[in-house]
Specification:
By secondary structure, the protein is α+β, with helices and mostly antiparallel strands. It is 17% helix and 41% strand. It has four helices and 18 strands. It has an 18-stranded mixed sheet that branches. A hairpin with a 2-residue loop joins strand 12 and strand 13.
């Protein structure tokens, strides 16, 4: 049972190619939890299950969080999967399309896949699309109460839900302290990814991330896209900017007419090896 491990700015994923798992229609929750576990498995922020057949794109992909839930889209996951497609010989062109449950994207590989640009799709602030409870509206600069503290938040989707909280300064403690409660807040029927946002200047922002189903995360492509779009929608940044995270930097370009996002960032190959079936004798 072969696996391939990569990281994108410290956000690490394991690629499982269905061709190497003929007995699996997909990994189940127990298998995902063990494989992603940092002590009992290989350890990762999620599993990329593909390539899969697709009627609309060159390749199909499903993305699983470490708790066994499924993510609609992941920017870092898409860049990692794109690098795997190139490394494995599945992709013979530097540009191709990928279908995800959160929408179709186009990947463009440079430097032998070490740097990848992904057209992530359009950001929406519409409450029904995200979704956020309440009457239909753009979710911008609203109040939310967490652990006795009131925050101002904006919400967005780029195929998966995001709660962006602008702050004067951000740090990891904010994400660890308030992220878990924000993720499952009743405002968000499908839970949410959380970003604490600091605007550095017109071309730079900093975020700290609590990822739905994964927890504290060093970097995230979809989080970078959502936070950059929110900062631009609030008039605080230009349409080309750099997102700074604990794991590194991602470049974001926003089409101001429709909030379509182009994301550029690096990918690093970590390891490849064989999963042993005896790891599944442990429940985590």
């Amino acid at each position: 049972m072969q696996f391939h491990k990569y990281h994108a700015l410290g956000n690490d994923y394991i690629v499982l190619d269905p061709a190497n798992f003929p007995a699996w229609s997909e990994p189940d929750t127990a298998q995902i939890r063990v494989i992603c576990h940092r002590n009992f498995g290989v350890g990762s922020d999620g599993i990329l299950w593909g390539p899969l057949p697709s009627d609309s794109c060159d390749f199909g992909l499903r993305i699983f969080n470490p708790d066994g839930s499924e993510a609609e889209k992941s920017g870092n996951g898409l860049r990692i999967f794109s690098r795997y497609l190139r490394d494995s010989g599945h992709a013979r062109s530097p540009q191709f399309t990928i279908e995800t449950p959160g929408g179709n994207v186009t990947a463009d590989l440079q430097d032998e896949g070490r740097m990848i640009t992904v057209d992530m799709g359009q950001v929406s602030f519409d409450s029904e699309a995200i979704p956020v409870t309440g009457e239909p509206r753009e979710v911008l600069n609203e109040e939310i109460l967490i652990d006795g503290q009131t925050f101002i938040f904006c919400a967005a989707t780029i195929g998966n839900p995001h709660c962006v909280i602008p702050m004067v300064k951000v740090d990891a403690e904010l994400a660890h302290r308030f992220g878990p409660a924000l993720e499952i807040h009743s405002n968000f029927p499908r839970k949410t990814n959380v970003q604490f946002l600091e605007v550095i200047d017109r071309q730079n922002i900093r975020i700290e991330i609590w990822e739905r189903g994964a927890g504290y995360t060093l970097a995230s492509g979809s989080s970078s896209s959502a936070a950059a779009a929110v900062a631009h929608r609030l008039g605080q940044v230009d349409n080309r900017l750099t997102v700074h995270m604990p794991g590194g930097q991602i470049g974001i370009e926003i089409d101001p007419a429709c909030y379509a996002i182009r994301m550029t960032g690096g990918v690093t190959q970590v390891a490849r090896g064989e999963l042993q079936s005896e790891i599944f004798s442990v429940s985590v």
